[in-house]
Amino acid sequence: MQTTxxxxxxxxxxxxxxxxxxxxxxxxxxxxxxxxxTAAPAASAPSVTATDGSASGSTGSGRTGSGSDAAGxxxxxxxxxxxxxxxxxxxxxxxxxxxxxxxxxxxxxTADGNEQEVHVAADGERTTAGPTEDTTxxxxxxENQRFVDAAxxxxxxxxxxxxxxxxxxxxxxxxxxHAGTVVWxxxxxxxxxxxxxxxxxxxxxxxxxxxxxxxx
Length: 216
Fold this sequence. Notes:
Blueprint: H1 2-37, E1 48-49, E2 55-56, H2 66-87, E3 91-98, E4 103-109, E5 115-121, E6 127-133, H3 138-150, H4 155-165, E7 169-178, E8 181-189, E9 195-201, E10 207-213
Helix pairs in contact: 2-4
Protein name: PepSY domain-containing protein
Region (Disordered): 29-82
Signal peptide: 1-27
């Protein structure tokens, strides 16, 4: 009788413990599920430096040739400043690539209205010839002074306006007269090699004409 009583008690204790064991098992499964459903943070795409020096993601893209455009336009600005320093003072009224883009020819108008011609290396950092004073008469002097007085935009500012109008490389830029207005007249070569001839008002910077040059 005593043995039967003990056996019965063990069965009751075992049955009482089963719900607790089941609950613990379910809790463990739930914990595993929670961990599985939590995704690890995705690795960020590496930053790639484009040809123009800008950083972009793996899906980013840069405009082809923008690096060479920037280098060419920086060289133009440097060449203009190098020529002006070689003369000592004055206003750059014309700059253009020469010899297949291996150098720059720059004209600087001094305070007396005369022109000084300076040749500068392609990178714009050093003179290769000049300054040499060009032959000018009274009419040339008067025209030079009128151009300088009307040009509120410097050659660098004019070049910047040109590439904002048509992205590319400025190959030629100079002060000229168009329909009675003093303009900066320049050529921009875009990435496809097409030349655009653009005139901007030398005082306001407003674009006056913008045409594709089909002579090439």
